[in-house]
Amino acid sequence: MLRRRFFGAIPVIIGISFLVFLLMHIAPGDPISLLLGDDATQAEIERTRREWGLDKPILVQYGEFLSRAIRGDFGKSMKFGEPVTKLVFERLPATIELALASLFVAVLISIPIGVYSAIKHDSLLDHAGMALALVGVSLPNFWLGIMLIYFLGGQLNLLPVAGRIEYGIQVETITRLYLVDSLITGNFPAFWSAIKHLFMPAVTLGTSLAAIVTRITRSSVLEVMRQDYITTARAKGLSERVVIWRHTLRNAMITIITILGLQLGALLNGSVITETVFSYPGIGDLLIQAISLRDYKLAQGLIFFFAMMYFVVNLLVDLLYMVVDPRIKI
Amino acid sequence: MPSLRYLKIWVGGGIVVLLLICGLGAPFLAPFNPQEQRLEDRLRPPSWSAQERGPYLLGTDNLGRDIMSRIIYGSRISLLIGASTVILAGVVGCFLGAISGYFGNLTDEIITKTTEIFLAFPFLLMAIALMAFLGQGLVNLILALMITRWVQYCRVVRGEVLSLKERDFVTAARALGGRDFYVLLRHVVPNTVPSVTVIATFAMAIVIIAEASLSFLGLGVPAHIPTWGSMLSEGRSYMYRAPWLTIFPGLAIFITVFGINLLGDGLRDILDPKLRGQR
Predict the structure, then answer these.
(1) What are A69-78's contacts with CB under 8 Å, separation 24+?
(2) What pLDDT, in 10s, does the model give residues A248-271?
(3) Which residues of B touch A288 (CB under 8 A)?
(4) Which of residues 217-256 of A touch B (CB under 8 A)?
(5) ipTM above 0.85 for this complex
(6) Do B122 and A310 touch (CB under 8 A)?
(7) Cβ of B117 and A16 within 8 Å?
(8) In the structure, what pLDDT confidence band is assigned to residue B47 with cuts at 50, 70 and 90?
(9) pTM, to two decimals
């Protein structure tokens, strides 16, 4: 089954690559002329076009793009002059760190509120919890980010408003995740600085996810609580805490993990905006830079990379089901 | 709890009606021309603040333009883009979902694979990519958002049609000699309306945030058209000096999206109890 799932993904991946490739060719105007500006001569434009392989027939270009992409080669950035893959891997750890921190924030907020709302179903607290979730899902994350910068960064001067770590603090790179690296090397000033820099972006990105997961947690827990085995667990005389946290939540986790997995895409969406608001040096920020610099090669590579990452994460979520619920075979 | 359900619809619906009134009646409601620059009045605080007694209820921006008027006019863009995207994406998605579910076989295979490809892209990212390559513009923005939003309708309608086509009333319609498209459009599709209405409401909220996000990134409608997202983006540079430039457009987005989500929640409880608690 797993093999079928894996091979079934091939046409989807080819489709993704074709769509990404098409993007560059639907652009009105010539990307080379846009890149070189108005002062470029026709000879310069033709030479650059040949250099980038854009003079070849479109299907040949697509074939070359696909064969290179399979080998992990997305070409060179037109503006930075470096391989796209290198630029992506330099920035990727920052985005992964932000996504994981946001996930942590979301789980920390949503699971207790969701479970509590389900236990106190239809009470005032339940309605307050759900109203809070509705507020969270309706907050545009870039506005929340700006407001946090204004209040926590500007008015109260509690937290840094941009970047990943304080200027001048060095972190020995092992995994390139600053929190992990600084902990491994026992560099606590760096750890503290990285936490402070990560706090506002993670809250910004985690809030809307928390809102969605709160609602899902509540409904899944409610559904599980109505099952016969929960009545049996109570009849056995187990404490309410054991019934809720061990029997109910464990069974409700399948739905919660599914939603968390599906929402990782939303985190990638959000990372583009959040990284821009906080000038956080991840791949989302790099994508916006690539777009504003009209670096189509880099933008194309990044979009393909984002799509692949999303696709792989969804596949991993499916695998995770088997760990959470051994009855599931995929 | 029926009373709460109706409360959601009343409050959410009230906010949506207010948005409609603002959008449609903008020329009559806005106290100033949203484009008119009064440089002598630039960065004036809201008229109710301690240090100000001017005519600008929500203050002015760095070019002396009235924030209140720009927010009122901005609601037009949110409404226009939200409604057109939801309708266009709905028509395309429902049509493809219906034929995919009803006819099955190769049609279903092709449409399902296509939806999988589109679902492989985080939607806002795809909209960003499309806008980056298509360029700024109202039509491009609607097109980009439509291309990214039809899939949800398609998936839900396909699922519904798959179950509906096995029901007795569909078999009866076929047995009476109804042609495929007639049965599909007359008997099957109308039964998907409750689910589609709920999806459309939530989609409207998502599209409004997406439009604001794209405008915030400078990838939305051209800069001279006032939108809530572009107002926020411009206001960021003056955040500490003039916080009202970022607070009020953000509040407008939040209240609108909150109202639409509230309405969607209420509608879902009434129209589609199966979906309750899901998003």
Answers:
(1) A69/A17, A69/A304, A74/A297, A74/A300, A74/A301, A74/A304, A74/A305, A75/A297, A75/A301, A76/A297, A77/A290, A77/A295, A77/A297, A77/A298, A77/A301, A78/A35, A78/A52, A78/A294, A78/A295, A78/A296, A78/A297, A78/A298
(2) 888 888 778 877 877 776 787 778
(3) 128, 217
(4) 218-219, 222
(5) yes
(6) yes
(7) yes
(8) confident
(9) 0.88
